[in-house]
Amino acid sequence: MPTSSEKIKSDQAHLLHPLHHPTAHQQPKVWVEGRGAIVKDAEGGEYIDGLAGLWNVNVGHGRRELAQAAMEQMSTLAYASAYAGSTNYPAIALAEKLSELVYPSINTFFFTSGGAESSESSFKTARFYWKALGKPDKVKVISRMRAYHGVTLAAMSATGLPAYWPMFEPRVPGFSHIESPDPYRFVNTDPNVSQGVAAANKLEDAILREGPETVAAFIAEPVQGAGGVIVPQDDYFPRIREICDQYEVLLIADEVITGFGRTGRWFGLEHYGLEPDIMQFAKGVTSGYVPLGGIGLSDKIREAINSAPPNKRWMHAYTYSGHPTCCAVALKNIEIIQNENLVERSAVMGGRLLERLSELETLDGVGHIRGQGLIAAVEIVADKTTKQLHAPELNLSQKLYEALLARGLYTRVLADCICLAPPLVITEEELGRAVDIIREAIPDVLAGIRQ
Ligand SMILES: Cc1ncc(COP(=O)(O)O)c(C=O)c1O
Fold first, then answer.
1. Atom number, ligand 1, closest to the C-alpha of residue 54
2. Distance from residue 143's CA to the centre of ligand 1 (Å)
3. H or E segment at 70?
4. pTM of the full structure
5. Nearest to 259 by CA among 61, 50, 100, 55
């Protein structure tokens, strides 16, 4: 049997990884097993999975029910085309289930294999909708800085993290960004409105700048995940909805992270009592056990698609849309979330997590702590008064990542924000341990870079 270090040599010779660079892959972790909120590496080390894989393993690792659901469907009918004219029982059942769970006006679903494919589907559907309504110039998409919507070409163009752009430019024309509402950093220059409304008003400015007759959609994550877990102000999305209605711009909610209980509600915009026109999902729909994503469309968009003449049909497709095995696993996953009350659990445990994290506020370097349900972040700054970040050459994020890992917490540190989004089944003891590890790691790393 080759040892794991021999396997790593083979990996380095043959595999290209997401965000690849060999310097980031000198001593990769080889993950071999998972149970609940714990993952094990090839050396036998056990870690708290602080980010539930990549914000997706909502029901936790090692669920035999999901393996069983896949096995049963694979043994019956692993795959069938779902192109118009064909369908299958798991896809029908999943669409029906989602129409019960998702926002009341969203009752029609198209399935993809992941988040970026869902972004592409949303953008194309927004364009389709306006063309079908006789407004063919409405094609542009506005998104936000610090947004992550995936990295296929149009999705990358909507993503508001500039590090993803330079080596793949030019971006797709017609995509632009407004500022993130980040309550910690957004500077409100309008004394007449709250910070949340001022941040939302940036959308109105952008629509007017672009020309409302050219803007198809605004896309936003209810909580910006990869941008550093940014929870908006309570009045932000209500004002966004108002602006979208006023200028006839579709609101796309990117619920790839926030869907399926992550924020303590089934879907993120439920916190504000409002509905998007399109919602997109992935990750938690199957808890990552098999790849699946999709978009949900409001009834008015479904109507536009259904009433188009055949030669102007919604000519969009993926081989794996409505994949029977993936849909069967999603159904079982949703059953687990419901039977184990994981959405409520996310709200309760999230509240406790935030309480525990807030004890870290007095630590040197801790600038901001935020969260909603079981998604949270601790932002580290060089100066608490000016909120200035550490110089990039200090590599703080990487050092924090390593210090947390060395103590048994595996998670991502993005733009100096320690992100947490553990499986919704994480125990209180494990959450407490994660916070203790963070409490120890921060002063240790800061002492190291200040030497
Ligand atoms: C909000 C959001 N949208 C889209 C994506 C892209 O998903 P995928 O990596 O499955 O393409 C992600 C991935 O992290 C995400 O967080």
1. 14
2. 14
3. helix 64-77
4. 0.98
5. 55
- Distance from the CA of 292 to the center of ligand 1, in angstroms? 11
Per DSSP, the three-state class of 391 is coil
**Structural element, H or E, at residue 246:** helix 236-246
Spacing, Cα 118 to ligand 1 middle (Å): 9
Q: Is 296 helix (H, G, I), strand (E, B) or coil?
A: strand
Closest ligand 1 atom number to CA of residue 152: 11
Contacts of residue 54, defined as CB under 8 A and 6 or more positions apart, other chains included, come to: 283, 288
The binding-site residues of ligand 1, defined as CB within 6 angstroms of any ligand atom, are: 54, 114-116, 119, 148-150, 221, 225-226, 254, 256-257, 282
| DSSP secondary structure letters along 82-138 | -STT---HHHHHHHHHHHHHS-TTEEEEEEESSHHHHHHHHHHHHHHHHHHTT-TT-
What DSSP character marks residue 409? E
* Ligand 1 atom nearest residue 225's Cα: 16
From first to last of the 451 residues of the chain, give the pLDDT tens digit. Answer: 456 889 999 999 999 999 999 999 999 999 999 999 999 999 999 999 999 999 999 999 999 999 999 999 999 999 999 999 999 999 999 999 999 999 999 999 999 999 999 999 999 999 999 999 999 999 999 999 999 999 999 999 999 999 999 999 999 999 999 999 999 999 999 999 999 999 999 999 999 999 999 999 999 999 999 999 999 999 999 999 999 999 999 999 999 999 999 999 999 999 999 999 999 999 999 999 999 999 999 999 999 999 999 999 999 999 999 999 999 999 999 999 999 999 999 999 999 999 999 999 999 999 999 999 999 999 999 999 999 999 999 999 999 999 999 999 999 999 999 999 999 999 999 999 999 999 999 999 999 998 7
Q: Which residues pair with 38 in a beta bridge?
A: 35, 48
| Cβ neighbours around 233 below 10 Å, total | 19
At position 339, the amino acid (one-letter code) is N
Q: What distance in angstroms lies between residue 150's CA and the mean position of ligand 1's atoms?
A: 5
Q: Tokens 């296929």 belong to which residue?
A: 152
